Amino acid sequence: MKKFLFYVLLLALFPTGMLAQTKNTFEIKNGHFYRNGEIVPILSGEMHYSRIPHQYWRHRLQMMKGMGLNTVATYVFWNLHETEPGKWDFSGDKDLAEYIRTAGEEGMMVILRPGPYVCAEWEYGGYPWWLQNVPGMEVRRDNKAFLEHTKAYINRLYQEVGDLQCTKGGPIIMVQCENEFGSYVSQRKDITLDEHRRYNAKIKQQLADAGFDVPLFTSDGSWLFEGGTTEGALPTANGESDIENLKKVVNQYHDGKGPYMVAEFYPGWLSHWAEPFPQVSASEIARQTEAYLKNDVSFNFYMVHGGTNFGFTSGANYDKKRDIQPDMTSYDYDAPISEAGWVTPKYDSIRTVIKKYVKYEVPAPPAQNPVIEIPSIKLNQVADLLAYTERMQPETSADPLTFEQLNQGYGYVLYTRRFNQPISGTLEIPGLRDFAVVYVDGEKAGVLNRNTQTYSMEIEVPFNSTLQILVENMGRINYGSQITENSKGIISPVTIAGKKITGGWNMYKLPMSQAPECGKMGSCTFTNSAAQAAKLKDSPVIYEGTFTLDKTGDTFIDMEEWGKGIIFINGKNIGRYWQVGPQQTLYIPGVWLKKGENKIVIFEQLNENPKTEVKTVKTPVLTKLQ
User: Which of 125, 267, 396, 546 has fewest C-beta within 10 Å?
Assistant: First the structure.
């Protein structure tokens, strides 16, 4: 009787959901994944909390469930949370713990991928830009200064999500140790394999020391396991479609047994500005999904839903033809769930296959969010940004300073230099990072562009004139050996006709961390008539307007006829646009709009065709190169 009363009291003190949570277990043993003592396949999709407004998290998770998945995987973006040294932010769209809890409420397991390096086509692969200002720092190696910062990050992350591990009743079932480290080992042969392995082991130990006690795993291409695996973590293979080879290589590094998992199964691919948008057929992905299911191979779709690189969060790659390949604002990824959260033919094909193999019921996907179209948004004001900027207080130096030296992470810097004597010839800036519009006394002289390897142009600077160079950071490299070379701005001497231009440089900081306001730019702001707009042709400008809505919904702003810049909607930076394509529209989530008056601010860098209005459309344009 006493024992019965004790249990009655226990039930009264703790909600039944909490008691149920404590029963969850997850293990890797006997070549399988076990959840609560039963063999379970992991049918996962990668979806990143920070690429989706938090108001849409539940909808997107329900979309995943409706496709037949039982797990969601997410990277953790260190630079999203530690915005300045020791300054942490886990609120709003950055509330990782809430994202994980919501997944648990929807019955999903969670795979956490904390890096600290994540790649992900994300600015600097997830590293905070300010690490580059730490004395003696080199990222991603056995470096004391770096490991002190990774330890602080991992410990702070544990404070947020440690209690959400399945060992404590939460939905987190596995944690990744580092990320695609085998790739980095192959790229950095100047570092010994022993040092690489020491570093990898230290990251694994930092996770354990912080309190992460669920199973760990690594993920690499199957031919890169030698450098990427670490003792005590399950090796998984990225992009491996050959099931026989997958099992062979996992057996080799995991005591002759599974479980077998493809931690990145690519239903689409990443996309860069100025390059064709990659597309992968639905039938091909459906066939590969079925092959995995038939052969007891777990998988994680990367990406199942890509979302959007809002603000300045997109990263960049590089190759032999392009010194930087900036990632687009859209992270649609040709994924089964589109950027705006829509069902696609790929979604339907995968869902049909999964339903044939799983024992649980696959629910219908939720309804699509409403979509609206705004035929015309009047841009009533325009501001001359060049004139306004030069009224600001500059930083001065004998030589141009980098963004990092200016203690600025993102956005733009205007570099100016006054000449008392005329000079002409070839202007060369080999250290341009990344895109510059060059002016002389406010008149456009040309464009330099790291993407096209355009680092020089002819220029003529008259007597008593000012050279002005507006430089944009297009996103730090997120993959490859050059991740250690990520300073922005002008990082080398500027020369004209072979002469180094030194002394008298002014630098004006334009981080654009908040929406600029025409009303605060005084006499540099004008009523935006067609005549006034024409006067500012080829000048960098701020356009501003308001529009009134009687209903809200998702929409896509049409920037096909514009040049290059960024857009703020009600103070939210929705990302970069660029006329080169293939992305010609930017996604505006309906939750960032409101009934009544809304405000739009556009920073247009080129302004080759001055504007007085802009419109939105109901369908995105992501595949149109110019």
Answer: 396
